[in-house]
Amino acid sequence: MLYFWKKDKLMNKILNIITALFIAICFFGCEKDDICSGGTPTTPRLMIEFREKDNPSILKPVTNLTAVATGMTTGVVFNEGLSSTDPNRYLTSANKIGLPLKITGETTEYTLTQNSTSTNPAIRNEDKIVFNYTTKEIYVSRACGYKTNFDLTGSPVQEPNTVDSNRWISNIVVETPNIVTENEIHIKIYF
Amino acid sequence: MKYTLKSIFNLALVLISLSAFAQDKKKDTVAPRTERYGLRLGTDLYKIARSIYDNDYKGFEITGDYRLTEKIYIAGEVGNENKTTDEPQLNFTTKGTYFKAGFDYNIYKNWLDMENMITLGMRYGVSSFTQELNSYSIYNPHPYFDESGVITVSRKYSGLSAHWVEFVAGVKAEVFDNFFMGFTLRLNRLVSNKKPSDFDNLYIPGYNRTYDGDFGVGFNYTVSYFIPIYKKKNLPKAETEGKKKE
Question: Chain A partners of B187 at a C-beta cutoff of 8 Å?
């Protein structure tokens, strides 16, 4: 058989072409595009930045913050690396956090707790905030399916003074109402 | 990958049979050869077989070629497919009809009155189809709420179409009188692709599944019947060339 192929240069060329086609098919067939890559922008979280109320240009970390949505028993995970039994998994002292919004429904209420590890009621402080928004489903790709983008409608609503007389959050400002990427800040919280 | 393995096996089979023919070289004759011209009609066995074993697939393809000159054949395919694709995040059904036309160039030099072929060719393909999104999931990299459910819908996108060009390499062997078996491998490149709004053409009848770029691949495995229409003697020029090479 090899003798037959070597005899004719044209045949060799043909064999090369057919081999190339095989390699192409193999390449396409083995291509792993059925896993949604982490780099693909999909459903974004609400990105919040904390700033000093008296000096708005300064970012200010919140000490031992937890964020629990109403109706949920555990808080938003801030330390993915820790086990689910470790309470530190749900704690952060950052000046920037991301909160997932419900993709079904148009409102999500969070309780943000400052100094959540403290048992002293004078230090530990819970504030409730309601985020209202509309959702939009957008096609992404074969592997990722669809994503949901959000549009904040109006400013987030804090509990009135009459209900919570000791609020730690003094002011909330909407920076970007269209939540389409996690690469920008949507809301600034001053405290 | 299933395709690829099958194809390799089939290619090996046909090549072995062709090389077996090649061993009969001594019997070659200098007498001018009379060659048959005509129409060959066939069907894609793979699509028929898959329609039987795969509940999510129904399809068939009629293939045809007409011998125009000693080496050039006008060739084409027409077919229909109904395929439900199940992806982790999506489930959709594609239905449509396609038509491909082009040529095959036979680069195989037969001994005696053999009519086997190794062809290179091209096609222009057109497909008209609908996509129906059956269900989908919202991808959430940070799941927190218990809402990872699959959303069942029935969203139908009609009036979709695609045009593409195919580069075809194929083999055909006469297994018994006028009956041919063969297969082709195809590298496809989209020319135009009318996509639905808020969805994509992840599968196109005749073109197969799409990838991120404009390229795709295809394959068929045909059985066909040759209907002789007229006979023609080889041109003397072609004869002397043939002799020189030997």
Answer: 21, 24
Cβ separation of B185 and A22 shorter than 8 Å? Answer: yes
Indicate which of A25, A33, A46 best probes the interface with B, i.e. most B CBs within 10 Å of its own CB. Answer: A25
Smallest Cβ–Cβ distance between A145 and the set B137, B185, B216 belongs to B137
Asked if residue B123 belongs to a domain, the reply is yes
ipTM of the complex: 0.78
Chain pair A-B, CB pairs under 8 angstroms: 116
Q: What are the boundaries of each domain within chain A?
A: 1-31, 46-190
CATH of the domain at B241: 2.40.160.20
In a domain, B29, yes or no: no
3-state secondary structure B69-93: CCCEEEEEEEEEEEEEEECCCEEEE
- What string of pLDDT tens digits covers the 191 residues of chain A? 444 444 566 667 767 776 776 676 666 555 556 788 888 899 999 999 999 989 989 999 999 999 999 989 889 999 888 888 888 899 999 999 999 999 988 999 999 999 989 888 888 999 999 999 999 999 999 999 999 999 999 899 998 888 888 889 989 999 999 999 999 999 999 98
Within-domain flag for B24: no
Other C-beta atoms closer than 10 Å to the C-beta of B167 total 17
Question: Does the model's pTM come out above 0.80?
Answer: no
**Is residue B15 within 8 angstroms of chain A, CB to CB?**
yes
Q: With beta carbons under 8 A apart, name residues in chain B contacting A104.
A: 147
Which residue range is the domain that position B87 belongs to?
Answer: 2-18+37-245
Of the pLDDT bands very low, low, confident and very high (cuts 50, 70, 90), residue B35 is: confident
Flag whether B27 is in a domain.
no
Cβ distance of B212 and A33 shorter than 8 Å: yes
Q: Which of residues 147 through 176 in chain B touch A, CB cutoff 8 A? A: 147, 167, 169
* Binary contact (B199, A139; C-beta < 8 A): yes
- Please tell me which residue of chain A has the smallest CA distance to B108: A11
Domains: count for chain B = 1
